[in-house]
Amino acid sequence: MPFWQKRNILPHLNNIKPAVLTVGGWFDAEDLYGPLNIYKTIEKTSPGAKNTIIMGPWGHGDWAGEKGKSTHNHIYFGDSISTFYQKDIERNFFAFYLKDAGKNELPEAYMFDTGKKQWEKFEQWPPEHIPPVQLYFGQNGRLSVNKPLDEKAVFAYTSDPAKPVPYRSQTEGLTFTPRAFMSDDQREASRRPDVLTFETDTLADAVTIAGEILAKLKVAMSGTDGDFIVKLIDVYPNNHPNYEHNAKNIVMGGYQQLVRSEVFRGRFRNSFSNPEPFVPGQVTDVNVPLQDILHTFKKGHRIMIQVHSTWFPYIDRNPQKYVENIYKADEKDFIKS
Predict the structure, then answer these.
(1) DSSP class per residue in 19-78
(2) For 250-293, what is each residue's pLDDT tens digit?
(3) Residue 4: what pLDDT?
């Protein structure tokens, strides 16, 4: 059994009896997968358990502290959000279940909408009353909401491992785990020829997306391996004011805020245990699951999708020529595709 399966806690979450409060941050670069899937697994395996999930506008562990102004990178979400969680959610949960004090009035899911910048309560996650949203690519960078466009349209770019797409909009020094990129500005990437960018018209009405996301790609390549980075982005109006904490070089008007992203190494498209190369020129399905969000794209904003194949140095470069172990790839294995 691979090491990553041996360390997986999810198969052990069966017949859960105690009340569970799972807390996570929408911008947790270290473990966004954990809280979401702990909650979902307990829902499946222990339907009678008191199972609650909280997701706030935090990075890893940020709910445990308080800075006054609740920000992530360039984005301001409100004041004292962690204090609200600690006093109104966490304290009440433990008082009720450990001290038999007070009332348990928590909803099943207490989730922060990162677009509206407010808390929402739901009796299940994902919520049933928020309809699913489908986004479609079109010619000339068009992105359509719930309306299919030309299914035969083809979009092309050349990915060069020697000129990778940076993962940040600003230079960032060596750090244990990069965090700021999770909500970073994507304007630099959207100008690159090796990034496919699709954008809606200015929204006449707000659009809320809640829950998991699946990007269904049909790809063909000249190489035999490739990565696929998919990004969901909120494009701010050009007249959006700066936040108080923004540095002088940050302009929030026209800001392209990363809402959710995922990287998928194409060789694992059919199995994480049995990688396989691509056949050059052959159209192949690559489904990229993106983790949950609760985000309202406001009226006057636009929705953007980006697709590309490098994101350096956050993600190591794929040679784009299939080799058994990319960490042992030679210089000649790194090719344009």
Answers:
(1) -EEEEEETT-SS-SHHHHHHHHHHHHH-TTS-EEEEEES-STTGGGS--SEEEETTEEEE
(2) 999 999 999 999 999 999 999 999 999 999 999 999 999 999 99
(3) 82
Distance of CA 275 to the CA centre of its chain: 24
Q: Mind listing the pLDDT tens digit for each residue in 99-134?
A: 999 888 999 999 999 999 999 999 999 999 999 999
CATH number listed for the domain at residues 135-316: 2.60.120.260
Report CA dihedral (25, 26, 31, 36) to the nearest 10 degrees.
Answer: 90
Mean pLDDT, the chain, whole residue set? 96
Selected from 3.40.50.720, 3.40.50.1820, 3.30.70.600, 1.25.40.10, the CATH number assigned to the domain covering 8-122 reads 3.40.50.1820
Give Rg (Cα) of the chain: 21
- pTM here is 0.96
Residue 86 has pLDDT above 90, yes or no: yes
Is 9 in contact with 39 (CB distance < 8 Å)?
no
What are the residues facing 213 on neighbouring strands?
A: 290
Does position 173 have pLDDT exceeding 80, yes or no?
no
Residue pair 155/137 in contact by the 8 Å Cβ criterion: yes
Q: Is 87 helix (H, G, I), strand (E, B) or coil?
A: helix
Domain coordinates in residue numbering, the chain: 8-122, 135-316
Distance set, CA 132 to CA 10, 66, 122, 175 (Å): 26, 34, 16, 37
